[in-house]
Amino acid sequence: MTEIMTPQNRSSEISNGLIGQPIARVDGPLKVTGRATYAYEHAMNEAAYGYILGAAIAKGRIVEIDSAEAEQAPGVLHVMTYRNAPAQPEFGPAVTPTVPEVFTRARPMLNSDRVRFYDEPVALVVSETLEAARAAAGLIRVRYEEERGVFDLPDRLAEAYTPGRTNAGFETDSAIGDFDRAFAASPVKVDATYRTPYQHHNPMEPHATLAVWSGDEVTIYTSAQTLANFRAGLASTLDIPPERVRIVSPFIGGGFGSKLIVHPDTVLAALAAKVLRRPVKVALTRQQMFANAGHRAEMVQQVRLGADRDGRLTSIGHDVWSATSGFEEFCEQTAVFARSLYASPNRLTRHRLVPVDLNRGEWMRSPGEAPGMLAFECAMDELAERLGHDPIELRIRNEPADDPERGVPFSTRNLVACMREGARRFGWERRNPTPGRIREGRNLIGYGMAAAIRPNYIGAATARVAIDANGRVTAHLDMTDIGTGTYTILTQIAAENLGVPVAAVKVELGDSRFPRTAGSGGSWGAASAGSALHVACGALKEKIMEAARSDDRSPLRDADIAGASFVGGEVRLGGRSAKLADLIGSVAPDGLEATGSIAGGRNTETYSSYSQHSYGAHFAEVAVDCDTGEIRMRRTLSVIGAGRILNPKTARSQILGGMTWGIGAALMEETVLDPRYGHFVNRDLAEYHVPVNSDVPEMEVVFLEEYDGKANPLGSKGLGELGVCGAGAAIANAIYNATGVRVREFPITLDKLLPGLPATAI
Amino acid sequence: MQPFTYERAGSVRAAAAAVAAKPEAKFISGGTNLLDLMKLEIERPTHLVDISRLPLDRIEETPEGGLRIGAQVRNSDLAADLRVRSRYPVLSQALLAGASGQIRNKASTAGNLLQRTRCPYFYDRNMPCNKREPGSGCAALEGFNRMHAVLGASEACIAVHPSDLAVAMAALDAEVETSLPEGTTRTIPIVDLHRLPASTPHVETTLGHGEMITAVTLPPPPSGRQLYRKVRDRASYAFALVSVAAVVEKNGVRIRRARIAMGGVAPKPWRTLEAEYVLAGAEAADPAFSEAAESALAGAVGRGSNDFKIPLAKRTIRQTLAAAVEDA
Ligand SMILES: Cc1cc2nc3c(=O)[nH]c(=O)nc-3n(C[C@H](O)[C@H](O)[C@H](O)COP(=O)(O)OP(=O)(O)OC[C@H]3O[C@@H](n4cnc5c(N)ncnc54)[C@H](O)[C@@H]3O)c2cc1C
Ligand code: SF4
Fold first, then answer.
1. Residue A657 near residue A33 (C-beta atoms within 8 A)
2. What whole-number distance in Å separates Cα of residue B315 and Cα of residue A627?
3. Nearest residue on chain A to B312, judged by CA atoms?
4. Which has the closest alpha carbon to A352: A307, A322, A308, A310?
C-alpha cells in the first residue's frame, strides 16, 4: 500500500490539481501490448547484424588474429578488428580535466592490439543474420601475449592512491575538528570494517543499437539515459560534430546508470554501418554486459564511530577503499553522504582507490549511498547496541540543526519524522533489543531499521510546449523515461498547468532533436525536466493570454490578466472565460508554442545556500531458518520525506524498486571476480542473483509530504535512488537482531551466517 | 551457435536411429538447456532430432501399482498430476522447487534428468574445463566453487548435477526406460543413469549415443512421509545449495525405513544408503538423525568456497528428518 501524509499546514503551493494524483502510466498500454518499440526491435529490412567477439584474456596484447575462416562463412559481410577499424581518437587520460567530460569523451573500440580487460571487444562480425554473425565469430582465432593482471583489493590497500575528486566532483576527503583525538577519547566506540562486492546493474533490456547513416549524418536508435551526453560521446568517438549525430531512445528497458555513456554496441554499430553503407544492429549479450557495460566496484569500508555515554556522537570516521580501473578512474562518492547525515564535532571521510585490470566502474543506482550506507548504517546499529540505546533514539539524538559540514541550513529535512512515523506503523516496540530472542517454529525473527539520505540535484533543462487549434497540447524534451514514469509526470505537469485533461496532452521524449535536458540520472529527471516544462507552460500561458487580450476576434479582448486561471479546459480572465480550444482556434489558428528553461548545477543560489537532500527511514522484518541460515524477508516499510510527490503511484514504484535493490544488496547480489583470470565468473542471471518475486515480501511505502520550495519550482525532490539508500542496512540489522550474528561482508548469504548459528537442538 | 540441420522424429525408433546415424546429432526436447548451451557453443550438434511431439506425454498406472511417466511429460504437468501429488508428493515438491513456471512448462521429464551442470567455468569457453574440453583442466578446483560437489567428485571435475527432479526420483527408486537405436529397450535404475566423473567428466551418463529415454517408472508409492527440502540462495529460481529428498516410514516411536537422497552436493543425485542403515529401526529423534547426517556426509571433501555445504547438508538432513517424523 502507499499512503501520503500531508502536513497539517499544507502549503498552499501544493495544489489540488493533477499533479499529485496517482495517475497510471500513460505509456503503460503501449508497453503491455508490445507497441513500445525498443532499440533492437526497430524494423529495418536492410539492417545487418553485428556480433562482438570478446578477449579471452584480461591483460596483454593481440599477437595474431586470424579471421580468414570467419570472413568466408555464409552470410558474413565484414569482420572488423583493430587492424581495419576506422581511425578513432585515442582514449585519453584516466581522469578527464573536468567532470562533464567523463560523459562526452571519445571511447574508441578496436583501436589497438592492447587488451585492457577480459571480454573487451577484439572483433566485430557483421552478417546477414545474428546467428550467422555469432557462428562466424566462433571461427576467429586470436593469439595473445598475456600479461599478469592485478585484481585483488583487500590485500592491496597499501597500494591505494588518493584521487583528485570523487564521482560528481566531490572533495575526496573531508576533515572537521580532530577525529583521531576525539575517537581515541570516546568512552563508547565502534570500529568496524565492511566489504561490499562487485555488482552489476543488469537492466532487463541489454545495451543495443541500430545505426543508420545518411550521407555524413548518423541516426542512432539505442537505449540511453541522457541523450545530449550520449550524443557528444559518440560524436567525439567518431570524430564528427555532434550536430551530425541524432540519438533516438523513446523507450528504455531499465538503465540504473549503466546507460549514461556510450558502450561497444553503439560505437561498433556506428563504425560498421559507415563501413558497410547499410544499417547495422549490435546488442551486447547478457554475458558481455558484465565486462562491457559497467559495474559497481568492490569496496572495503572502515567506519569508526565514537560517542559519549548518552549516545552523542563525538567522532564520525568513514574510510573507503575502492577498486578502480587503471585506465579510467571511477571513484564512487561512498562516504559523501556521511558529511550530512548526523551531527558530530569531529569528522573524517576519505576515499582511496586501488587500480585493477578491469573495465571502468560506472554509476550504479544510488552511487555512493548504496554501498556507503550499507556499511555506515550497520555501524550505527552496532553503536546503538554497544550503548544499550534504541537505534532510532541514537539517530534522533544526533540529529543536526544545520548541515554538519557545510554549515548551511537544510532546505527541508524530515528524517526524525520519518523514523518516528515508521516506528509507530511498523510496531517497532515489538522488537526485542536482545538479538536471537524471537522464534517462530524453526525461524528466528528480527527487526531492523536504517536511515536514508540522498542529495537532491537539479540539472539544466529546456522544454518546448505547444497548443494547437483543437486545444491539444504537445511537449517535447530530449528527456528519457527509463521506466520511472517520466512520460506520466510530465503529462500531469503540462495538463495541470494548462488546465486540460491528461488525454489532451502528448509528451514526446527520447530524441536528441528535442530541447536539451539533463536526462535520467542522479534522481534529477523529474525535477529538472519537470521544472523546465512547468516554466514552458507558464510562458505558453502568457502567450495565450496575450493573444486573448490583444486579438480582435477574442472573446477575452482587453480582459484583465490579474488572477487569470487555466482550469477545466477554459481560460478565465477578469471574470470572463472562454474554452481554450475555441480561443486558440480564433486567435491563433496555427497554434502557439513556447519554451522554458531551468538552470542547473551547484551554481544556483538555493543550492549553495541550502543543504538539499531527500530522507527516509527503512524498516525490515526477516526470518532466518535456525538450521540452514536461509534468510527470507517478511515485510518492509519505507517512510519517505522527499518533497512534493508528483505522482504517488510512480513514486511508490521507485521506492519499492529501491527497497528491492536493498534486498538484493543485503542478501544476494555479488559478481565474483576470479583473480586468476580476471573475469567475472557468474555472468548470467541464473548465477547473478537478483531478488525474484518470492524474495520480495509485503512492502509498505508512506510519504510524509513536504513542499521544498528551495529545490525547484515544483517543490519536489529526487526519489528514484532514495529507496536503495539504507535499505540493505535495515535488512542486515534485522538479520543481526534475529540471530546475533553480525556479517560485515556483503551479501549476507547463509554460508556466512551458518558458523555463527548454534547447532540447535531438534 | 553452429549451423545445424533439424528433423522432427516420427517415432521413437526413428528418433533413436536418426541420432545414432550421426556422431554429432542430439535429441532436443524442451530445449531449455540444450539451446542455451548451443548459443554459447558449449554444445555444438550438427543435427537435431526433435522428439518433443512424440506421444510420450502420458502418465500411466503400471500393473504393479506404480506410475509410468512418459519422457515428454512436462515438468509442470508432472508436478500438477493428482496421482503424483497424492502418492509421490516428494516428486511434485521437487519439481515445483526447480527453475521457474515458464521453464517448467517447457521442460520435459527426460530433459530434466539429462540437463548438464551449471558450473560457471563450464559455461565460459575461455576457461579450462575437463567436462567441456577433456584434458584442459578444471578451473573450479582452485576457483570459485561455492556451488560445487563435496561428494563423489574427482580431481578432474567437481561439478554438481543440478536437477531437483532426479533427487526425488532417486529417493523413490525410479527406473529409466530407454530405447536403443537397434530397436531394443532397457531399464536403468535412476541411480545408475549418471556416472561419477573420475577421469572422464565429459562422459556423464550410462546412455549410449542414440539411446533415448522413453519413460521413467516409479514403483508403488513407499509408505511413510515424503518431503523435499531445497536450501537455496533465494526463495525461488535458484539451484540447490543442498537439497534433501526423504521418505520416512515410522513404526511407533521408531523408524521402520528411511530413504534419503541429496542434491547439490554431488555429480549425480546422491542416494545415501549409509544414512538409511543408521535410521532403520532407530528411535525417530536425535541422536539417530545426527548420526544419519554424519554418515551421509562421511568422506565429504570441501574445496574452499563450498566447505559450508558439509555442515549445511548435515543440518538440512536433520531438519528434514525431524519434519518428516512430526505427527501430521
Ligand atoms: C534459469 C534456469 C534455472 C533452472 N533451475 C532449475 C532448478 O532449480 N532445478 C532443476 O532441476 N532444473 C532447473 N533448470 C533446468 C531445467 O529443469 C532443464 O533445463 C530442463 O528440465 C531440461 O528439459 P528440456 O526438455 O528443456 O531439455 P532439453 O534442453 O531439450 O535437453 C536436455 C538434454 O537432454 C537430452 N534429451 C532430452 N530428452 C531426451 C530423451 N528423451 N532421451 C535422451 N536424451 C534426451 C538432450 O539431447 C539434451 O542433451 C533451470 C534451467 C534454467 C534455464
Ligand atoms: S568442475 Fe567440472 S564442469 Fe566445472 S570447470 Fe571443473 S571440469 Fe569443468
1. no
2. 6
3. A628
4. A322
| Those residues with Cβ within 8 angstroms of residue A10's Cβ, 6 or more apart along the chain or in another chain | none
In chain A, which stretches have pLDDT less than 50?
Answer: 8-14
A644-679 core/surface letters (b: 16 or more CB in 10 A; e: else): bbbbbebbbbbbbbbbbbbbbbbbbbbbbbbbebbb
Type of residue numbered B176: V
Contact: A627, B319; criterion CB under 8 Å: yes
Identify the pLDDT of residue A45. 81
Per-residue pLDDT tens over the stretch B221-263: 999 999 999 999 999 999 999 999 999 999 999 999 999 999 9
Three-state secondary structure string covering B280-294: CCCECCCCHHHHHHH
The residue whose grid cell reads 582514449 is: A91
Report the pLDDT value the prediction gives residue A11, as an integer from 0 to 100.
Answer: 44
**A13 CB burial (10 A radius; 0-12, 13-18, 19+):** exposed
Q: Does A758 touch chain B (CB under 8 A)?
A: no
* Mean local confidence (pLDDT), B33-57: 97
Stretch 613-652 of chain A: residues touching chain B, C-beta under 8 Å: 625, 627-630, 632
Angle between helices A727-739 and A648-667 (to 10 degrees): 50
- Give the cell for residue A133: 554473425
**Nearest-10 crossing angle of helices A580-587, A525-550:** 60
**Radius of gyration, alpha carbons of chain A:** 27
Q: Give the SS3 label for residue B151.
A: coil
Cell reading at A275: 563501413
pLDDT averaged over every residue in chain B: 97
Report whether pLDDT(B105) > 90: yes
Atom of ligand 1 nearest to the CA of B97: 8
The predicted pLDDT at position A14 comes to 44
The reply to whether ligand 2 has any atom less than 6 angstroms from the CB of B306 is no
Residue-wise pLDDT tens digits, A222-251: 999 999 999 999 999 999 999 999 999 999
Burial of B102 (0-12, 13-18, 19+ CB in 10 A): exposed
Please indicate, yes or no, whether the overall pTM of this predicted structure exceeds 0.90.
yes
What single DSSP character describes residue B180? -
Of B142, B308, B318, the CB nearest to A627: B318
B277 has pLDDT over 80: yes
Q: Where are the domains of chain A?
A: 458-600
* Ligand 1 binding site (Cβ under 6 Å of any ligand atom): A 686; B 26-34, 51, 71, 75, 98-99, 103, 106-108, 110-112, 114-115, 162-165, 212-213, 239
Q: Calculate ∠ Cα B203-B204-B205, nearest 5°.
A: 110
Interface test with B, best of A751, A754, A757 (most B CBs within 10 A): A751
Task: Decide if A721 is catalytic.
Answer: yes
C-alpha to C-alpha distance for A655 and A658, rounded to whole angstroms: 5
Name which of A142, A624, A627 to mutate to probe chain B: the one with the most chain B Cβ atoms within 10 A of its Cβ. Answer: A627
- Asked if residue B26 has its Cβ within 6 Å of ligand 2, the reply is no
Ligand 1 atom nearest B240 alpha carbon: 8
pLDDT for residue A156: 97
CATH of A458-600, one of 3.30.365.10, 3.30.1700.10, 3.90.280.10, 1.20.1300.10: 3.30.365.10
Q: Which atom of ligand 1 is nearest to the CA of B211?
A: 43
The Cα–Cα gap between A509 and A524 comes to 16
Among the partner residues B3, B311, B319, nearest to A135 by beta-carbon distance: B3
Strand partners, A726: none
pLDDT of residue A225: 98
pLDDT tens digits, residue range A296-329?
A: 999 999 999 999 999 999 999 999 999 999 999 9
| Residue of A513, A548, A517, A553 whose CA lies nearest to A535 | A517
